[in-house]
Amino acid sequence: MHYTIRAYYGGVKQGELKGTFTSTGFTPDAGYNAYMQLGRNKTYTFICFNDKVTPNGSNLDVALANAKDARIGRQQIALTTVDQSINLSSKHVGCRIQTKVMAKKDIPTALTSTIESIGATIPQTVSYDPVTNTYTTTATTTMAPTANNSPASTGLKYYASDFGKDYGYTSQASYLYFLPGMDAANLKLNNLSGTIFWKPFNMNISKLSTTSKLLVANGSYAATIKMKPQYTYLMSDGTTGFFKETTQGGGSKTPIALVIDANQRMAIALKNANGGTSMQWCSINYRNTKTNVHGIFNTRKAFPYTGDLSRDPTSGKDETYNASYTTPAVTGNKVKGQNPDFLACYAAAHYNPGVVYTGSPTLQWYLPSANDWTQMQTVAFWNMGPVTYDNQEGACYYHLFDTAFTQVGENNISFIFFWTSTEQYPSEALTYKISSSFGPDYDWKYNPYGVGNKVRAFVTY
Q1: What b/e readout covers 167-184, taking b as 16+ CB neighbours within 10 angstroms?
Q2: pLDDT tens readout for residues 12-68
Q3: Burial 305-330 (b: 16+ CB within 10 A, else e)
Q4: Claim: this prediction has a pTM higher than 0.90
């Protein structure tokens, strides 16, 4: 690379060389020596710059078009009483900045956006004073909307973020180059678009920096944009809304459930029923009795397992409140939500969110079926195919899903076994657990050696 080298003493230029640096040394231009004769026992300021820099009197000018490649070096070296060799290095005049979109979930597709300036605020040319080692903007210009696209994330799905705990997924745009003195607050990002969570989004960022941020020569910067899902809550007044509308998010409404399927108007309670205490599915009276008309009975007779959990799908609401979903083997009230012998259904039906619901109609909380739990695939970022006994589980960003509950003051939902209303054998019912693997399991309906499982009520609104 071709360079000019100058030596200054007391602010006055004392000598100049021009030539080309290679990996093996320095070759002077024709008419120039490979050395410079300077006074001994003095400290000199040495300046080197490449051909993307334009000398202008005693200063050095750089244009925006050369921001990426222009290089200037400045070093102070004390010369002694003998001839000596010196080593010089240079740095980029320009500075660079990129946008970096980050998420706790993988970013499955490329993102698109444009960057532009806020008015004529982009340094178009700068002048460098080698004596004072300062840059001065000599002209400004505007920056038209410039493509700022970025690729899908490459981190291993689920594991790169520790299942939604960390901002482990990144979509980085290419660097854009500017001259020193550029203020990042004078750049805005338009039409940032793509899909990260459930639906496509399109957003604008009015300033890449909320406060003044002057970029310096040879600086490398990233404007980080951290993306979070907007969970929807059912409020105590019957409306739905986002976190910012809740009292915990600075709003005025009280959330009572997390919406898991807006089309079906289905939501999950924010707290466990029965005060959070585990319980049996039923009393000892029905521990070995088929009590549901529907179910997935006799589907695991041999390995490999056969049978599909969605083969005979039911709603937990029906199995909690519809007497026709209960077999004749049940004596007494066949509405399980009103029969204390069916502890899990009864607890779900009597769930109290802790605040009066003023919406309409009156809510009916119920014990969700195994099929109801599968409706959370989208909101929990749960990735799996059809739920069968050969393919029971799929990975889940459970840490991220936990925030839907913790940000409104409730406890984690992960790593807890919850009862479903679905019977498997006359002696077993299905459970669900949200963790690094999300899917169904089973347990004895009445286990004299255990305490049972938790109950988390669902509701339609």
Answers
A1: bbbbbbbebbbbbbbbbb
A2: 999 999 999 888 888 999 999 888 999 999 999 999 999 999 999 999 999 999 999
A3: eebebeebebbbbbbbbbeebbbeeb
A4: no
Q: Which residue is listed with tokens 């000398």?
A: 55
In single-letter form, the type of residue at position 425 comes to: Y
Q: Are the beta carbons of 313 and 453 closer than 8 angstroms?
A: no
For 24, residues 6+ apart whose C-beta sits below 8 A from its C-beta are none
Transcribe 350-394 into DSSP letters: T---SS---SSS---EEPPPHHHHHTTTTTTTEE-SS-BSSS--E
Higher confidence at residue 301 or residue 111? 111
| 3-state secondary structure (DSSP) of residue 22 | strand
> Which positions ≥6 away from 83 have C-beta within 8 Å?
none
With beta carbons less than 8 A apart as the criterion, state whether 46 and 74 touch.
yes
Helix, strand or coil, per DSSP, at residue 400: helix
Give Cα 409 to chain centroid, integer Å: 21
Asked if residue 5 lies in contact with residue 18, where contact means CB atoms within 8 angstroms, the answer is: yes
Residue 383 predicted with pLDDT over 70: no
- Amino acid found at 451: V
Q: How far apart are CA 171 and CA 296, in angstroms?
A: 44
Q: Which of 32, 93, 89, 35 is nearest to 59 (CA)?
A: 93
Could you give the CA distance from residue 443 to residue 193 in angstroms, rounded to a whole number? 45
The whole-angstrom separation of Cα 296 and Cα 290 is 11
> 394 is written with which tokens?
């799929």
